[in-house]
Amino acid sequence: MKVKTACTKIVSISLVFTLLTACGSQQSSESGATQTESSSQADQGSEKALPDLIGLENNIEMIIKTLNGPAVLVKQGMQQNDQSTQSGQNNASSQENQSSQESQGQQEGQYTQANQSSQQSQGGQQSQPQTSSQPDPMTTVSQTVDMMHYQWNNLMAAAVKKGAKQELINNFSTALNNLSNTVSSKNKMNIMLAANKVYANIPDLYSLFQPKPSPEIKRVRYYSRSAILNSLASNWKQADSDISNLKSVWELYKNSLGKEQQDMANKLDLSIIELEKVVKGKNLKLVDIKGKVMLSNTEALEKAAESGSKGQSVGEQSGQEQSGRQ
Fold first, then answer.
1. What are the CA-CA distances from residue 108 to residues 102, 112, 122 (Å)?
2. Distances from the Cα of 115 to the Cαs of 103, 106, 122, 133, in angstroms?
3. What is the CA radius of gyration of the chain?
4. How far does the chain reach from its first CA to its final CA, in angstroms?
5. Residues 40-72 pLDDT 10s
6. What CATH fold (topology level) applies to the domain 212-315?
7. What is the pTM of this model?
8. CA 254, 257, 263: angle at the middle one, nearest 5?
9. How does 82-96 read in b/e, with b if 16+ C-beta sit within 10 Å?
């Protein structure tokens, strides 16, 4: 009897232990699933916010380019999509109109077709080449800045969710508001300087949404452009300060580059030295050309770093898939 009671107790304890273990395993599984889901939602949030960040960067470059200032080429991805969509809509509309005209011509008969042909001939004789008027640069700049306010409104909430410091939010908002106020003055140099001040916050925003490859090349670009613009404005003291900051940021970023980017890095390194010489020599003409060369080198290096980062990501993903199969 005692043996039977002891066995019953042992079985009961075993069942309790099994149930507790199963519950713990289920909770661990649910916790892991929750973390995975949260991570996935965070990634989706970053993907949704990234186009607005890219749009802000593009618009800053467009403002400076519109005013014939030192700018890099605008990223083509979003523009190509817009142009492709617009082109497709235009083609579809053209085909519909052509089809409609053909159908109408068939229904109305030869007489109507003859009239249409005559009208087209007369229209061709009367038409004269028209000269396209260039849009006012200040109007274009003003419209672009207005668009940036909407983009920032979308991006700001996402940046806060990603852990952006209040200082970054305030700095960007203040710089953007200052740009809007400066546009009303219609002073090209002041507008470009104000636009570049907005750009100063772009690297920190990219650190939140797209930390790889390192966005510090954009900080290099900011100080480079600031040195160029302040030199062209004959603000040589500030230009010298910009060169010092540029060299410090560049040294840190240069050490993070891989072997594949060394050739590009060497070109940029030499162009920084060249820019420093002409800034110290207060040579306005050479500052303009040397500055543009240097900005072109930052663009080439950034593209090389992006290509290297994409290749590394593909390699890591392939390795993870192979490990999962094993």
1. 10, 6, 21
2. 15, 13, 11, 34
3. 31
4. 53
5. 555 565 678 899 999 999 999 999 999 999 999
6. Four Helix Bundle (Hemerythrin (Met), subunit A) (1.20.120)
7. 0.70
8. 85
9. eeeeeeeeeeeeeee
